[in-house]
Amino acid sequence: MRDFRRTTHAMTGLANDTFIRALLRQPTPHTPVWLMRQAGRYLPEYLATRKKAGSFLNLAKTPDYATEVTLQPLDRYDLDAAILFSDILTVPDAMGLGLRFVEGEGPVFDRPIRDEADVAKLRVPSRESLQYVYDATTQIRRSLVRGDGLQRVPLIGFSGSPWTLACYMIEGGSSRDFLKIKTMLYRRPDLLHQLLEVTTCAVIDYLTAQIEAGAQAVMVFDTWGGTLAHGAYQKWSLAFMERMVRSLPREHDGFRVPSIIFTKGGGGWISDIAATGVDAIGLDWTMDPAVARAVVGQRCALQGNVDPSILFGTDDAIRAEVAAALAAFDSPRLPGHVFNLGHGISQFTPPAAVTTLIEAVHEMTRADAPVAMT
Ligand code: CP3
Predict the structure, then answer these.
(1) pTM to 2 decimals?
(2) DSSP label at 125?
(3) Which of 1, 71, 279, 316 could make an SS bond with 258 (beta carbons 3.0 to 4.6 A apart)?
(4) One of 17, 80, 87, 93 is an active-site residue; which one?
């Protein structure tokens, strides 16, 4: 048995540590739930803050605003974790690529990486250039402390995976076919490798600084790992994420800081993902959770994996889907499940549907909670 005090947050003053415990495969009094993109455009209060800030980027770059929008979904819903409000593209922005968000088009880089000279110029960004992220992290962590001195829920930090960041850096924005990066992969693998090396060092420093600033768990978003072929995924995405996971501080202030890898479309590779030593694996909705559990056993926690479109269903349909997902994960009987969507929540989601989902997860898992918490 591991020393309980060192692996849990029982003594940290977390009022609700179910999320951290689930990531560490420990029993919890209910199945914890949070939602990818839980702070965002489906919430009218988010849109109001974004309007005040003037733009998404100014919102993300101003710690007061970032703190405000991080807390918005927690004030509305009984969520079990907070996630830093920021974006994965802050890192390439700080590497000098010039990030803009174009309405209806998504992110655009003014100076994408196209050739050898561009790659040669890339450097790990200074801590100062991303200080606004670390300041927001510290401010959010403090704002999570209630009047009685206990922290409401843990705070998640995050970054993009090197491969996913490279997709945006080379394509210059969102892409349908990823032809530019795949052309580089098969014509100039040396260049792509060099880019991924620098970017890996950058995200390791980025997540380390977030942990030092107060992030209590970290998640790596590998949104575009699933566009790679079998074999190419292991070489061009997973190997770099493995280096990240192994280089991050496992503990901070004496407490374990669990890590999560989410490769969208990566269901076929979870055995390889588990072998990186990561604490938890994010699953999208194409994966059968029972199969995932059979593959990884209790080596890793599993997070996911409900289709975000169930939130457009009736309340009864949402409850039925929650029940089915819990059964598929055998949650809460088996420890190590964090309830989540299989990808980010849609901006068109009715906010009331989220209440239905979260209440259903808690009600259905509290009823036969495996262990009473004291
Ligand atoms: O989950 C959260 O609540 C934390 C905040 C968060 C955002 N982006 C805020 C955001 C997180 C974790 C991200 C991660 C992110 N960003 C990913 C990985 C996860 C995923 O969705 O696959 C990716 C690929 C990005 C890059 C990015 N940022 C894109 C492609 C876009 C535009 C897409 C869109 O939905 O319009 C963004 C912008 C963005 N990041 C928004 C938010 C709330 C919307 C911006 C707005 O308010 O206009």
Answers:
(1) 0.95
(2) P
(3) 279
(4) 87
**Residue 40 CA to ligand 1 centre (angstroms):** 8
The CATH number of residue 281's host domain is 3.20.20.210
The 8-class DSSP code of residue 147 comes to T
Q: Is 41 a catalytic residue?
A: yes
Q: Where are the beta strands (DSSP E) in the chain?
A: 82-83, 99-102, 106-109, 155-160, 217-222, 251-252, 255-256, 259-263, 280-282, 301-306, 337-341
Span from the CA of 348 to the centroid of ligand 1 (angstroms): 14
Name the residue range of residue 28's domain: 18-373
Q: Is 38 in the pocket of ligand 1 (CB under 6 A)?
A: yes
Whether residue 6 lies inside any domain: the answer is no
CA angle 270, 275, 277 (to 5 degrees): 115
In a domain, 4, yes or no: no
Tens-place pLDDT, residues 26-60: 999 999 999 999 999 999 999 999 999 999 999 99
**DSSP string computed for 149-176:** S-BSS-EEEEEE-HHHHHHHHHHSB--S
3-state secondary structure of 121: helix
Q: Is 244 contained in some domain?
A: yes
- Known active-site residue 37: yes
Number of domains in the chain: 1
Is 121 domain-assigned? yes
User: Is 100 one of the annotated active-site residues of the chain?
Assistant: no
pLDDT in tens, 195-229: 999 999 999 999 999 999 999 999 999 999 999 99
Residue 169, C-beta contacts closer than 8 angstroms, at least 6 positions apart: 92, 95, 97, 109, 112, 113, 195, 199
Residues pairing with 305 in the sheet: 340
